[in-house]
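Morning F.,

Quick status update on the modeling queue. The single chain you submitted on Monday has been processed. Sequence for confirmation:
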Amino acid sequence: KKTLRTCTRCKLLWPRAIGQQMGPLPDFRVPTGSLSPFATTTLDAAGPIETRQGRGKVRAKRYLLILTCSVTRAVHIEMMYGLSADDFLTAFSRFVSERSMPHTIVCDNAGQFVKADKLINDDAETQLNREFPRIKFLFTPPRTPHVNGVTERMVQSMKVAMKHVMSNADLNDDELSTAAKKAQAILNSRPLSYLGSHPSELKPLTPADFLADKALRDLEIPDQRLDYRAKYHHLQTVLRD
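Structure tokens below.
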């Protein structure tokens, strides 16, 4: 082996491929403290997907909000009826009620995400609220989807799972929402560790193993920050009253 390592002709005949050096993980990908699912969440919207309305003569565009835990790699999918801030807040409120309130969100600079950040955290009354927001939004630079590759990879996996679940079916809104939840279950059942072929080997670790029950909080935005004509304002008022 020592002779082969020092032989110049052998190095030319049997060159060794150089492996790509991977960069360090960003700070939000490194766990600090507890492994609470969705404490740091990355998200993105995928679509549009056309759904059947009524008897099928009318079509409507629907979108899927993919939320990914940056540490446990768990996935949560919610259907949105549009790309407005109201649609995002409604879907995000359902996510918070089912999972938990994240302390950090990593996303792109889409208009609905930027406006949601202002509605949730834009409180100029006290310096404390400005320094310690309810949810810290980290926006990726424009035209750099690879920066949020954690979510982009899950978007691709979600599309593959949805293709197997939906096939070429013509779905309505309720059926699309159900198909999205089926795809969510498939993604949360994927192995994170080595998957052996022997029956006696241990069960591989999956994101579903981290989704334990815990205390849940509701997402509520002060009425003075919302337009009284906004759908989320009406929904919040109805649920509170």
